[in-house]
């Protein structure tokens, strides 16, 4: 990033305008930017659907599978008695995921309190705290109250 290259970013809501679609904006910038800049489009929903795994994906998959196998082995040793496995505690059913740059095992019983089952999403979204910044960048004429709790409103 410490070069003379300048970058721009266009963020767009899929429901903002029926005429200015993502494809239209991409084609407009591509046509007008010939020889001056290039243009790429990226739809996050499409990115989340996967594709060809990158070396990072393969490495990360290996790391989390190794960590999961260590956890399973440890739990089997802890709960094995008289030829049987007694997995009847809350921490015997866990989900492995990233929390603030760390791989963390979280009991599913704890996740129940953090999940909105009707809408199939977490009750608190970390990125909602970025809304005041997005309003500033979009030059909204509004109050920039940063006391947003990050709760999601369903409409």
UniProtKB/TrEMBL annotation:
<dbReference type="GO" id="GO:0030388">
    <property type="term" value="P:fructose 1,6-bisphosphate metabolic process"/>
</dbReference>
<dbReference type="Pfam" id="PF00365">
    <property type="entry name" value="PFK"/>
</dbReference>
<dbReference type="GO" id="GO:0070095">
    <property type="term" value="F:fructose-6-phosphate binding"/>
</dbReference>
<dbReference type="InterPro" id="IPR015912">
    <property type="entry name" value="Phosphofructokinase_CS"/>
</dbReference>
<dbReference type="GO" id="GO:0061621">
    <property type="term" value="P:canonical glycolysis"/>
</dbReference>
<dbReference type="GO" id="GO:0042802">
    <property type="term" value="F:identical protein binding"/>
</dbReference>
<dbReference type="GO" id="GO:0048029">
    <property type="term" value="F:monosaccharide binding"/>
</dbReference>
<dbReference type="GO" id="GO:0016208">
    <property type="term" value="F:AMP binding"/>
</dbReference>
<keyword id="KW-0460">Magnesium</keyword>
<dbReference type="GO" id="GO:0016020">
    <property type="term" value="C:membrane"/>
</dbReference>
<dbReference type="GO" id="GO:0005524">
    <property type="term" value="F:ATP binding"/>
</dbReference>
<protein>
    <submittedName>
        <fullName>PFKAP protein</fullName>
    </submittedName>
</protein>
<dbReference type="InterPro" id="IPR035966">
    <property type="entry name" value="PKF_sf"/>
</dbReference>
<dbReference type="GO" id="GO:0046872">
    <property type="term" value="F:metal ion binding"/>
</dbReference>
<keyword id="KW-0479">Metal-binding</keyword>
<dbReference type="GO" id="GO:0005945">
    <property type="term" value="C:6-phosphofructokinase complex"/>
</dbReference>
<dbReference type="GO" id="GO:0006002">
    <property type="term" value="P:fructose 6-phosphate metabolic process"/>
</dbReference>
<dbReference type="GO" id="GO:0003872">
    <property type="term" value="F:6-phosphofructokinase activity"/>
</dbReference>
<dbReference type="InterPro" id="IPR000023">
    <property type="entry name" value="Phosphofructokinase_dom"/>
</dbReference>
<keyword id="KW-0808">Transferase</keyword>
<feature type="domain" description="Phosphofructokinase">
    <location>
        <begin position="7"/>
        <end position="72"/>
    </location>
</feature>
<keyword id="KW-0418">Kinase</keyword>
């Amino acid at each position: 990033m410490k070069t003379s290259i300048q970058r721009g970013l266009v963020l767009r809501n899929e429901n903002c305008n029926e005429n200015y679609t993502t494809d239209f904006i991409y084609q407009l910038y591509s046509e007008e930017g010939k020889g001056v800049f290039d243009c790429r489009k990226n739809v996050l929903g499409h990115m989340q659907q996967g594709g060809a795994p990158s070396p990072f994906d393969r490495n990360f998959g290996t790391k989390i599978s190794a960590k999961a196998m260590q956890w399973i082995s440890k739990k089997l040793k802890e709960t094995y008695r008289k030829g049987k496995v007694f997995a009847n505690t809350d921490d015997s059913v866990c989900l492995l995921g990233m929390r603030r740059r760390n791989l963390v095992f979280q009991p599913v019983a704890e996740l129940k309190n953090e999940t909105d089952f009707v809408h199939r999403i977490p009750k608190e979204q970390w990125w909602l705290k970025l809304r005041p910044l997005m309003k500033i960048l979009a030059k909204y004429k509004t109050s920039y109250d940063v006391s947003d709790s990050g709760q999601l409103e369903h409409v």
